[in-house]
Specification:
Layout (H helix, E strand, L loop, with lengths): L5 E6 L15 E6 L2 E3 L2 E4 L2 E3 L8 H9 L5 E2 L3 E2 H5 L20 E6 L3 H14 L3 E6 L4 H5 L10 H14 L6 E6 L6 H16 L4 E5 L13 H11 L3 E5 L5 H11 L3 E4 L8 H10 L10 H19 L1 H15 L6 H9 L4 H11 L7 E3 L8 E3 L1
Amino acid sequence: MVEKKVTFFLAKPVLNHEKHSFSANSMESVSLKPLKLGSVEIGFPIVQAALSGYSDWPMRVIARRLGAPYSICEVMLDEFLVNLKERKRTSHFLHISEEEHPVGGQLMGAEPEQFALGAMKLVEAGFDVIDINFGCPVKKVLGRCRGGFHLSQPKVALEIVKQTRDNVPSDIPVTVKMRRGIDDSPESRDNFFEILDGAFELGVAAITVHGRTVTQRYVGPSKWEFLKELKQHAGDKVILGSGDLFTAQDCLDMIAETGVDGVTVARGAIGNPWIFQQARALAAGLPLPEPPSLREQREVMLEHYRLAESLYGESRVGQLMRKFGIKYSILHPEHDSVRSAFVKIRSREDWESVLAKFYDSDLPGCHPDGRMHKAQGSCA
């Protein structure tokens, strides 16, 4: 069912350009349009981004159950997908369940022909949208001419888009993830817009843009003013924003300030899947919900572990879930102690022991701080 256009209320933003901090001086109404990626109806325009090493099936399912209308799997290499055999140890990469549709598959690679073949593997696995990664800033990725490296070579980037769009069935939307350039040089800016405009001409349904450059990686603020300029340039073409979205209010502020059609929540969703539920409340004109109580957190964390165990098996899941426990700890008032306990996780018994010790009482949890305080929690 298509979600109707709604109106939400948020604090009128007063921007501190150094820290991207906002103060709530007054309330204003902003129109929030349902998001659509080609033929795929998304609805609520705040979605979960692809997160390397994190956005596997269990994380996506938890996010969907807590309000995310769409999520994207962790990025996969084209050559890996082309050569992937049906083995139990690797089956989790392409695992999808009915409840998470629509779901996107993100792909990264160097060669246009192989990229298109990898995209078809994602289509065959049942992903509803194919997302092309031109944004990854990791050094080893750049060194192999993948991810954000393509922002330095528009011709190759657009050939990847063309071959992917030509090979993927027409009813499957193709989208692109970019950063605002390799760096802030004029040449980088020109390359960015050549790729952006060319990709839309080749038929991509939407482009997500992170407000940092590739050379910035995750250092310094995301440049939201660039996203505003970009949306004005793109007109009615679908632009999603990314970068420095650590609270529900951040998500709504980005839409209000920049005019983008939606946002993709990345690091802000790790350990805080409630961000989508909270954003929906704010979008409906309601106050920010109280942070999940410790018992509410415990139930979600138990289910997350159960889902992961069903996918990876008992012997592997303990160490894989350790990183999630560390992220979940940010919402606990005893963050440092809980984090230290999760660092030692090796098994279900360890996981349940931490939950029994720290999450047994029904005390209030914490809201994460905003964009400039992403490593800490803030108790309500």
